[in-house]
Amino acid sequence: MLNFEGIATVRPIQKSRKLADVCYDIRGPVLEKAKQMEDEGHKIIKLNIGNLAVFGFDAPEEIVQDMIRNMQNASGYTDSKGLFAPRKAIMHYTQEKKIAGVTIEDVYLGNGASELIVMSMNALLNTGDEVLVPAPDYPLWTAAVSLSGGTPVHYVCDEQAGWFPDIEDIKRKINANTRAIVVINPNNPTGALYPDALLLEIVELARQHQLIVFADEIYDKVLYDGATHTSLASLADDVLFITFNGLSKNYRSCGYRAGWMVVSGEKKHARDYIEGLNMLTSMRLCANAPGQYAIQTALGGYQSINDLVGPGGRLLRQRDLAHKLLTAIPGVTCVKPKSALYMFPRLDPAMYPIADDQDFAYQLLAEERVLIVQGTGFNCPSPDHFRVVFLPNTDDLTDAMGRIARFLDGYRKRHGTS
Predict the structure, then answer these.
(1) pLDDT for 199-250, tens place per residue?
(2) C-alpha span between 63 and 297 (Å, rounded)
(3) Rounded Cα–Cα distance for residues 81 and 70 (Å)
């Protein structure tokens, strides 16, 4: 290409238009700024991501040893859906969760649940198809729907009702283009855990409108105060369920990228969709083999997560401490999470008049060296929330919450709302 002076110019290479509505602010622009600050020598307290290993939560030793022992067997491709033994272990786990009718062929292993989420959307959606996604959500879901050519339609999770999905809002948003509903339970970012009665209402809507239910249950063992988790797919056999889980959180094995997807329920009328899943599974050849070898040992071994979330457990202590410190700050409220690893506090708009919550996160980072994720990064409709992990040990967590409190005190003074 020549410009008007006859000199060759380079045409810019632009990203695909499919990415126009895709964002993942958990690792977004604010994190890039934090990396720049680290390069300049600043120490950043990172409360932005549930990466357990960096906070001293190690994978169970028996999982590590099993991967080491099997490394010699892990250099070749596996079956496209995964090795037999871990898939059988997952099948048995679905039986423990009372999910009926699951066979080995219904279990797909992936490079983390994230890969399988994107795959499940790619196999389903055409332009114009809609998927109901919670707001706030784990943003990969919204991104996966958009990237697959579909339209994410966000249904309200009501903070005043403990962050439970608003069934009436879901009903209003179902139309002829709606193909599926996503349910994140236990919930990221709010920590909500849904009761059976609510789950049954969602299943009934799916039944009435012939929707696929995508159940993200990656935190199903990270439960506090004696809570128990019910798998959505255990509540019906006449609805198609796609259930996602993995080792990342329950077994502190984020980097192993060992996740799975289970197809259950009304499979008879979904043969073509399942064929699409099989095609995409084959195209990526297989999930990483070393991570697959960790699954059977993890599911069948000692469940050390119970020690972390039970009375006296480290995660329970840190949840209670983070909640106490956050809600002691003027104008900050937070529904206490019953599950997962996060707080999703609300800032009273009268005291914190935030117009741009990404800029708010930048300011906190610049002033106090604390990295959070703004609420709109989770498709929260208003800029008055943010998410923090409560993974640092109690001393570091106290320091981090103290810095947030100091920043918010200065924010109120600057805006005359103290």
Answers:
(1) 999 999 999 999 999 999 999 999 999 999 999 999 999 999 999 999 999 9
(2) 6
(3) 19
Averaged pLDDT score across all residues of the chain: 94
Helix axis angle, 112-122 to 271-283, nearest 10°: 130
CB of 79 closer than 8 Å to CB of 96: no
Most confident of 31-35, 172-176, 410-414: 172-176
Q: How far apart are CA 365 and CA 357, in angstroms?
A: 12
**How deeply is 12 buried, as exposed, middle or buried, from its count of CB atoms within 10 A (0-12, 13-18, 19+)?**
exposed
How far is Cα 24 from Cα 115, in angstroms, rounded to an integer?
A: 14
Q: Are 337 and 253 in contact (CB under 8 A)?
A: no
Q: What is the pTM of this model?
A: 0.94
pLDDT in tens, 337-378: 999 999 999 999 999 999 999 999 999 999 999 999 999 999
Report the C-alpha gap between 222 and 319 in whole angstroms: 12
In three-state form (DSSP H/G/I as H, E/B as E, the rest C), the secondary structure along 252-300 is CCHHHCEEEEEEEECCHHHHHHHHHHHHHHHHCCCCCHHHHHHHHHHHH
CA–CA separation, 358 and 289 (whole Å): 39
- Is a pLDDT exceeding 90 seen at residue 7? no
Q: Residue 17: exposed, middle, or buried by beta-carbon count in 10 A (0-12, 13-18, 19+)?
A: exposed
Closest C-alpha among 366, 379, 371 to residue 411 = 366
Range of lowest pLDDT (68-77, 92-101, 129-138)? 68-77
Tell me the two tokens of residue 152: 């994410």
